[in-house]
Amino acid sequence: MERFDMKFNSAIHLTAVACVLVFSSLARAQSMARYTLGDWQDRDIAETYDHPIYEPGGHFSGDGTDTTMFHWDSYGRVRINRDDKNAPFFGYRVMIADASNDSHIIHSTMDEFDLALGLQIGDLGDWHFSTMLGAGYSSTHPFTNTSGIFGIGHLLAEYPYDEQNSILLSADYEGNGGLFPDTALPGFAFIHKDDNLQFMLGFPMASVHWKPASKWDITAQYTVPFTADVDVEYRLAQHYGLYCDLGNFFQGFVPETGDITSRQFFQMKRAELGMRFIFNPWIDATIGGGWAFDQEYSAGFDVRNMTPLGRITNQPYVAFMIRGRF
What we know:
Elements: H1 2-23, E1 46-59, E2 66-79, E3 89-98, E4 109-124, E5 127-139, E6 149-160, E7 165-174, E8 185-193, E9 197-203, E10 205-210, E11 216-223, E12 227-235, E13 240-253, E14 263-279, E15 283-300, E16 307-312, E17 315-325
Antiparallel strand pairs: 1-2, 1-17, 2-3, 3-4, 4-5, 5-6, 6-7, 7-8, 8-9, 9-10, 10-11, 11-12, 12-13, 13-14, 14-15, 15-16, 15-17
């Protein structure tokens, strides 16, 4: 029992240290831009991720109104043939946020719905081409007008120069992006894959997945301009573990007036700890609590010309995280 307590305490200490070190190097809305690069596990036909957060008892500094933030980010992909690793698939994202307040300065409701088709186009010489094509809808008052409709388009070319490493070139268009939403941005990345370490370092996205030991799992993701997430997990037993999740959420939403040059932006930093429940291969769920801070509202076209509107007070929250494979 004494040996177990020592290991348990060491695990908690190392988790906290790892969280601080990794989070300090980064400033989680997810983009479907790199979905075509992810390998499917076994015969899975779908992969899903859901992260609801409930944050009661806050106040908006702009006019002192009360807030109760509910934030749910859901995304995933579904392929049409589980026996073909190159089969077309659909990627989706549903983002719902509601501050439940009566402010005349900000819009309480903020929603986004995205759907895109992923295709493996084929090879041209040593380069492999793939694409994501679709559309989304963003609004602070859903479905009142068509100004919130935007396009999604990503064209990727990957060149593997050995079994573990490759170079990626891309053209990335996100019509509701936080930086140059009216322009297709050039992208690049260096990609490495082995049993314990996979990373993609580049622009406008970067990610790292590292297993330093059999019971440890560390994942970090960053998307331009201000979206980041770090997740550190420690497996206590076959079906149980601890996790620490830290992130910076940043997203713009088209106002109900339809004026896309004055989108409402919301940014939230958070730190979260909790227990993980693993029931492979289908469900991986967590329950935890966290602290939300630097919750800022602003308005503008993109990050180059935002006007501050106010802040929500720092608050504790309750969170769930569910990852599914089917």
